[in-house]
C-alpha cells in the first residue's frame, strides 16, 4: 500500500481511461439529435444509459422515459431504444403500432446479437454468460426463440448446464462483465464442451476491458478507490470488485461527490478515482473538487491506454448532430 506523497495531504490517482465509452456517447447523442430534429418530446424506452445525472439532463431537454411502449400517449412522437438493446419483440411491436422507432443499441451489443443469431441458424445451442435481469441480457436472450439460449451466471451454472447436444453449442457474453470472472466461466465451458464455438473477437467491450485494466494497475497503490457510477450499472459495479480483487483494501461505488463518506478519508491517503462507462466527466470532477476543498491534494493521471473509438449516429440523425 502506498500512501500520499505528502505526509499530510491526499494523493489522487485519476484513472485513464474512465467514464463515457463510444456506445454511451452515441446513445446520448441520438437522444439529443432526435430532440433537435423532431422537437420535444421524444420517448425513450428504459434509461438510455445507466446514470441518473444523464437521464435527468435529458428529461430537462424534453425526453420522456418509459418502461413499455403502451405508456406512449402520443404515437406521432419518436421512440428511442436504449443502448443496452431490446428483444426482437419490441421493435416488432413498435412497427405494428406505427411508431417511429430509433435504435440506440450500442454497436458492440448488436455484435453479440448477431453472433447469437448466427449460432442459432447454424444449429447450435447458445450459452449466454451474463447477469440475470440486466437489460442487455434480456435483449440478447430476446433475439432467439425461447429455449434456444441458456443464461450462465456463475461457475456453478457452467458446471451444471446441459445443452441439447454437447457437440453443437456456442457461447456469447454480456459486454460489461468482469474479464477475469468471465474467463473462469469460459474455461469451464471449454473443458466440458471441447467443440464449443466462441466469439471471433471477445464480446466484453473495449471500454470495460480498458477500465478494468486501469483499476488493476492502480489498485495496489491505493488506500481507497472511488468508482463514480450508478448502482444499476454493471460495468461500474465490476470496477469495485476488480479493485478489491487487485489489492485495494477499500473500494466504493458513489454516484456523486455528495455520497463520499468523509470518515473513510484521512490525511496521507492515496485515493484512486475512476468512473463507469455511463458516468459523465462532470461527476468525476465534482469528486476531485470535493476532496480538494477539504484536504491539500495532489493529482496524478494514471494513463493506461488512449481511446479514440467513436460510433456514427443513425443516418436520419446525422444532420441534426452536425447542426
Structure in words:
With 323 residues, this protein is α/β, with parallel strands linked by helices. It folds into three domains: 10-21 and 206-303, 4-hydroxy-3-methylbut-2-enyl diphosphate reductase, catalytic domain (Cobalt-precorrin-4 Transmethylase, domain 1), CATH 3.40.1010; 22-106, 3-Layer(aba) Sandwich (Rossmann fold); 107-192, 4-hydroxy-3-methylbut-2-enyl diphosphate reductase, catalytic domain (Cobalt-precorrin-4 Transmethylase, domain 1, 3-Layer(aba) Sandwich). The chain has eleven helices and twelve strands. The strands form three sheets. Strands 10-9-11-1-12 form a five-stranded parallel β-sheet, with helices on both faces. The chain has a four-stranded parallel β-sheet with strand order 3-2-4-5, with helices on both faces. A three-stranded parallel β-sheet has the order 7-6-8, sandwiched between helices. Helix 3 links the parallel strand 4 and strand 5.
Topology:
Elements: E1 10-16, H1 22-38, E2 42-45, H2 52-61, E3 63-66, E4 79-81, H3 89-96, E5 101-103, H4 107-121, E6 125-129, H5 135-141, E7 149-152, H6 155-160, E8 169-173, H7 179-192, H8 206-218, E9 224-228, H9 234-245, E10 251-254, E11 270-275, H10 281-294, E12 297-303, H11 315-322
Parallel strand pairs: 1-11, 1-12, 2-3, 2-4, 4-5, 6-7, 6-8, 9-10, 9-11
Helix pairs in contact: 1-11, 8-9
